[in-house]
């Protein structure tokens, strides 16, 4: 699978997802198949006592299963409001250059669209 195919699949997943968590689960599986392993976490905009998924991210980055492990972040917006931060950990057998960064930025934009729709729906209800 090449990058354009991954981006099209991300569009498809976001287009049919019934929420951000559903989209994250499916996209995490897609990226794992494409790269080797992936962990996707949303850090909420409002501060909390513990960052969800922090220990999972640490374990992922400290593991020796893949020679290349990276952490990438992108902001999530809902309209003109901060909706949180997308955190992606990717593990792979080869250094994929700027690909993880491009996918992270693209996914942040697409999930922002989903967050905006969810917020509009919640405000209308």
Task: Summarize the structure in words.
The protein has 125 residues and is of the alpha+beta class. 52% of the residues lie in helices and 25% in strands. The chain has one domain: GAF domain (Beta-Lactamase). The protein has a three-stranded antiparallel sheet with strand order 1-3-2, sandwiched between helices. The longest helix has 26 residues, at 99-124.
Write the layout of secondary structure elements.
Elements: H1 3-16, H2 20-35, E1 36-43, H3 54-62, E2 68-78, E3 81-92, H4 99-124
Antiparallel strand pairs: 1-3, 2-3
Helix pairs in contact: 1-2, 1-4
Helix-strand sequence: HHEHEEH
Global geometry: globular
End-to-end distance: 40 Å
Any guess at the CATH architecture? 2-Layer Sandwich
Number of domains: 1
CATH-assigned fold name: Beta-Lactamase
How are the strands of the largest sheet arranged? 1-3-2
Structural class: alpha+beta
Radius of gyration: 15 Å
The named CATH superfamily: GAF domain
